[in-house]
């Protein structure tokens, strides 16, 4: 059965879409059938109402996280609608994103997140545009990298908790360069475990 939401630790993750503008070499979508025993391939994308019902009482969880298999901000309207309901029920809401929402939607969408999203984790995954293209194979090409940095700077204006992340398959030198980018933007930085 397809998994619209799934629990990991004290958090609940929302699997809104399998679509993404990247094809990262380390993506679980490319390599695995599921995650921690959950089948995350969707037969069809869930409706707003289905997600809200699947979440139930959001206060049972530390955080509700829009995540994947896929890029949740592909479905921006639904994400905002769901967040509005979950916030009204007292949830803390985070988005895990590839940071390309402004390219995807052709406008700066970050102000629309204000007051609805408490935290955003943005996958940086490379210290420069050339490396980003090699690792993530983005639909928007090299300009994706600068767009992610601009998106991050915008998020800092509207969202209380902003973090850039990298996967620990990068070399220590590249991880340091990514951290320097996060420091320069004045946002948090986290190295994620590559999970198989
Ligand atoms: S951005 Fe995330 S969902 Fe998209 S391909 Fe990369 S790891 Fe997978």
List keywords for this structure.
9 strands; two-stranded antiparallel ribbon; single chain; 7 helices; about 35% helix; 7-stranded mixed beta sheet; TIM Barrel; alpha/beta; about 20% strand; binds iron/sulfur cluster; about 200 residues
Could you give a quick summary of the protein structure above?
Residues 6-196 form the Radical SAM core domain. The protein is an alpha/beta fold.
Summarize the structure in words.
There is one protein chain. A seven-stranded mixed beta sheet has the order 1-2-5-6-7-8-9. A two-stranded antiparallel sheet has the order 3-4. The chain has helices spanning 28-31, 48-55, 76-88, 101-105, 129-136, 143-158, 172-185; strands at 5-8, 11-14, 34-35, 38-39, 64-66, 93-97, 119-123, 161-167, 188-192. 35% of the residues lie in helices and 19% in strands. The protein is globular. β1 (5-8) and β2 (11-14) form a beta hairpin. α2 (48-55) runs parallel beside α3. It has seven helices and nine strands. The chain is of the alpha/beta class and 196 residues long. The structure holds iron/sulfur cluster. Residues 20, 22-24, 27, 29, 68, 70-71, 98, 123, 136 line the site of iron/sulfur cluster. The site of iron/sulfur cluster (SF4) has 12 residues, from loops.
CATH homologous superfamily descriptor: Aldolase class I
The helix/strand order is EEHEEHEHEHEHHEHE
Per CATH, the class reads Alpha Beta
Sequence of strands across the biggest β-sheet:
1-2-5-6-7-8-9
User: Would you identify the regions where 5 or more consecutive residues have pLDDT less than 50?
Assistant: none
What is the SS-derived class? Answer: alpha/beta
C-alpha end-to-end distance: 21 Å
Instruction: Quickly count the helices.
Output: 7
InterPro entries: Aldolase_TIM, rSAM, rSAM_sf, rSAM_TatD-assoc
Keywords: 4Fe-4S, Iron, Iron-sulfur, Metal-binding, S-adenosyl-L-methionine
Pfam families: Radical_SAM
Domain Radical SAM core: 6-196
